Amino acid sequence: MKYLGSVEWADWLRSHIRHLGLNRLHFPSKLFPIHYYFALAGIIILGSLLRFWQLDLKPLWLDEVLTAFFSLGREYNDLPLDVIFPLSTLQEFFTLQPETSCRDIAQTLAQQSTHPPLFFCLMHSWLRFTGTEQLAWALRSFPALIGVGAIAAIYVLNRLIFSPIAGLIAAALMAVSPFAVYLSQEARHYTLPMLLIILALLALILIQQRLYHQQMPSPWLWLGWGMVNSIGCYVHYFFLLAVIAQVLTLFSGMIWYRRRLPSGSWSAVALVMAGMAVSYLPWWGMLLADMGRSETSWLPPPDSITPLVQLLVGWFLMMIALPVENQPLWIVIPMGGLTLGLGGWIIWRGGVGVKRLLHQPSTQLATLTLFGFTWAVLLQFLAIIYGLGKDISVVPRYNFVYYPAICALLAASLTVNHGASHGASGRRGVGMQGRGVIVLTLAISLVSTVCVVANLVFLKPYYPQQVAENMTIEPTVPLIMVMGYKDLQDVGLGLSFALALENVSEDGSQQGDRAIAFLSRQQGYNQVWQQLSELAIPSASPLNLWIIAPGLKRRDYPQNLAIANQKTCILDPSHHYRIGIPYQLYRCG
Predict the structure, then answer these.
(1) In Å, how far from its chain's centre is CA 229?
(2) For residues 495 and 65, what is the distance between their CA atoms, to the nearest angstrom?
(3) Is the dihedral of CA 196, 198, 202, 208 positive or negative?
(4) 72-103 residue pLDDT tens
(5) Is the pTM higher than 0.85?
(6) What are phi and psi of 481, to 5 degrees?
(7) What integer is the mean pLDDT of 472-479?
């Protein structure tokens, strides 16, 4: 067998990818020095460590509990509602149902949730592989693994459309990004669509490179672009925004370069779009139905220009996230100042670099595509916020739709500043001043990511750990947690508190009996108080009764509650809490 040198390998690679149009991109004439591949390997290893580090430290919160519930093959009717049951039996309802099929999961989601089914089907298969003994780790390890794949994908994207140096920096930025690590440690469907968006953007730019040089892209390239987008729409509804942004970007470029287009270009685009539409027909009706479901009503209406500010803050959180949540003022002020100062500096540096990228013929098209895609997504965000009256800017994690484009652009802009070369081979690298900017940016992000992993930033909504600690102020006293529920969202919230309550450790000290109950509030809280008086409650005395009552004001909690066994519980005014929803302690006996 003949062994090929580096030049021969490069020639062989170029000859086998020419039909995809990669020869129009920045493919080096010689293979890159071996230390760059060691650097890439180190970046991927670092990104993996950050994503899997203390993966199960934080308790599962509402959305993650629902992920577990559906992925395990469970249904709403499997839960013991309107009865009291011991906390020790809770894990029985979080056991895997291996006989459940993807069709079964899709049917359950169609009836009881507002999400497409693909991620939950894949998670079900993952749980069959990993087991559920350590449920939080098993649930989060799947998105974390996909997050590692996104690091490699963003490297490929930037290496091919900008330069090898830009590819390394993009991989490094995503590896240490507090936002990317946060999403990777969530047992939710964010990293998978993010990975698919990276692949879709790569295919889109390859298609443009061919079209605008009067060459028809390969049918396999068209097919790959369409398939990635079709799959993504079955993972998360917001992927549709990415599809629309890609189409708008492609149409804009084709109109601008209309005289360069080969014959049949518009027909090919129409055919691919028709294929994507047909592939989504089985779930289109569910999308329309889910848009009007009550589960989406929690998003508040927009408040003047507040959404614009929150979107800008979301950009900062992609690169820098210092502890400001639930912190005293003497920490919030300096941390907030550092966030604004350093984040603003990074954005400014990126803006300067983008301008330079736009002035270089070799990077102009890729930059315009990523820039146009980002703004197309943002315009759709504003349409949802101000047109539909749903302020999605309050949820930073939804920025996953355009984060890959921001990451790729920022990496390329940092490498073009201060002496970076974007010639055909990209071998010259970055000047000393440019390296300092890159190192400082990565260091800021790395520190922020350590704060994320340490549970100082991106705290779990509704703070299940804090709720559990507040409820166990008297560990040896028997405890009952009652959740007034109206829908599955309320039940999931109660389950997240119950799981955190189960995991609270008292350093080996004796614990009293603990039980939970979900009582319907469909007809108001008088219904809850009536059911509570009829439940078979243990006769232990004393007894701590915690009432979680979404939507109930503090003054509407009754001073006394009658429970079974002719026992009266008295409200303790010193133990009332509110974390978006209120919970109140009653002392019984």
Answers:
(1) 18
(2) 7
(3) positive
(4) 999 888 888 988 989 988 888 899 999 999 99
(5) yes
(6) -105, 125
(7) 89
Nearest one of 148, 151, 145 to 130, comparing CA atoms: 145
The residue to which tokens 């907030």 are assigned: 336
What is the Cα Rg of the chain in Å? Answer: 27
In contact, 401 and 189? CB cutoff 8 Å: no
Give the Å distances, CA to CA, from 519 to 76, 81, 89, 92, 490: 14, 7, 18, 20, 10
Residues spanned by the domain of 238 = 141-288+302-453
Same-domain status, 387 and 507: no
Distance CA(526)–CA(530), nearest Å, equals: 6
pLDDT tens digits along 182-238: 999 999 999 999 999 999 999 999 999 999 988 899 999 999 999 999 999 999 999
Asked whether the CA dihedral 260, 264, 265, 267 is positive or negative, the reply is: positive
Distances (CA, A) of 302 to 298, 394, 551, 565: 12, 9, 21, 49
Question: Would you list the DSSP string of 518-531?
Answer: EEE-TT-HHHHHHH
Query: Do 444 and 496 share a domain, yes or no?
Result: no
Query: Which token pair is 440?
Result: 């400082």
Amino acid at 122: L
**Do 513 and 410 share a domain, yes or no?**
no
Instruction: Name the DSSP class of 4.
Output: P
Query: Which of 453, 478, 508 is a domain's end point?
Result: 453
Looking at every residue in the chain, the average pLDDT score rounds to 88
Residue 336 in domain: yes
Characterize the bridge pairing of strands 567-578 and 543-548: unpaired
Question: 62: number of CA atoms within 13 Å, CB side?
Answer: 16
Condensed to tens digits (0 to 9), the pLDDT of residues 534-569 reads 887 776 678 899 999 999 999 999 999 988 766 789
Residue 222 has which token pair? 């068209």
Is the residue at 515 inside a domain?
yes
Cα separation, 502 vs 515, whole angstroms: 10
Q: What single-letter amino acid sits at 440?
A: L
- 377-415 pLDDT tens trace: 999 999 999 999 999 999 999 999 999 999 999 999 999
| Within a domain: 316 | yes
Does 440 share its domain with 561?
no
Total structural domains within the chain: 2
